[in-house]
Amino acid sequence: MAIRELTMPKRIFWLGMHKVLTKTELPRLRTLGYEVFNPPYLSSVKDQSACLEWDADQPTTLPKNVFQALSKFNFFYNEIPADIAKLLNDYFDAVVVTISPRWLRSILGVYKGTVIYRTYGQHYALSDELKREGLLLEIANRNNFVFMPHAEEALYGEHSWLKDIAVVSPYCLPSDILQHEGSWGKCDRRANEIIITCPNIDNPFFREHYQFLKKNFSEKHFLYYGVQISDVDDPQVVGTLAREKLIARFRRAAGYLYTYTDPRVCYLPPIEMMVLGGPVLFLKGSLLDRYFGEDAPGRCLDIRDAKEKIERLLVGDKSFIHAIILSQDSVKRRYLPDFVWPHFDKVIVDSLESNKEPSHWLTVDPASKVTGKKRIYLLHHFPGAPVIFDGESYAAYDGIPRVMRQIAQTLNKNCDHEIIITARYDQAEMFRGFFASLEPIKIISGCFL
User: Fold this and answer.
1) How does DSSP assign 418-429, residue by residue?
2) Which fold has domain 175-333?
3) Sequence-distant (≥ 6) Cβ neighbours of residue 126 within 8 angstroms
4) Residue pLDDT, tens place only, 231-265
């Protein structure tokens, strides 16, 4: 989209530290005409993706003492005291929180302005984690909260209340990989090597994946790439490399194998390999797998299938390699600037330049706002958890919820009625999904606290 003139200059507090995002979305916000303050990453939590080179000279119109106070405070994995909260509310029109629900919790607890929660996939159900952080009620009833995931497919297994407020916008690869687009095919000398990604083996999550790799992909032609916080005594672990050297190794490898099966997150290295022009194999069930259609030559049904296809890469099976590369075009496009930025720009500008009504599904106003409609309450405050969610749909084997849904469906056929389904707070999002599945019937679900 063409970058339009804003109705008024806005100042954004951008809570992010990822090495890619600080080179892509942070400067893009400034290109759109916003003034953006990005605090340094001062947390003791070691993260292989954290950018530790903070820009102390970032453009700002903040008073010097305000800039200094914000620069010295650790906003990551930390509660925000009253004096810092006052600065956020006094000087910023919006806060963009990236990635972590814990960072979001600290912001929503003190900041009253527009909050954009920008996510890029995770290995857990975000709606469940937000509820555990105590944010369900806060999010459901704010008219200035925007949930901005990077892909529709990444909403797999999320509850309907979170899916309904999602405004999807893809995210972009950094320029250092884009300038080498298509260069894999131009490399004359090919290494007898298959790249696998496994960073930060000190981290319990990645350590478990490392053990999976050692059990299933221990052959010497498999090399494990990714930033390591400490040295790892294993010849298969390449360790931290300078970015240009890493890209050079990708360009000459025989191929890439994506070994994660998380249905909600796709790490960037396989996408980078696709942009370079190289063949990528991936295990069935991953988010990357779900980007492809039914006929995907790079899909591996199991470990055995993966090893058979890897052998075809290692011997240079040209027809197989060409079929894989051809199938990757639509997937890699999702991460390219000409596709990403028009979507991103529109979502950001719309979010910051317009107001929206809160959903009000979790709490209900005492009086109906729908002119001429009678209100009927169905009190659904039963103990236990009679509604279950299997990651795709809601179901109830207990008779009471099914009967209540039949009642709601029957009552709602009369357009003179506004139906309010009530529930206990700890069951509210489950019941909302259960009754919302009656679409196109409109059900307003709420919770009396």
Assistant:
1) EEEEEE-GGGHH
2) Rossmann fold (3.40.50)
3) 101, 119, 158, 162, 264
4) 999 999 999 999 999 999 999 999 999 999 999 99
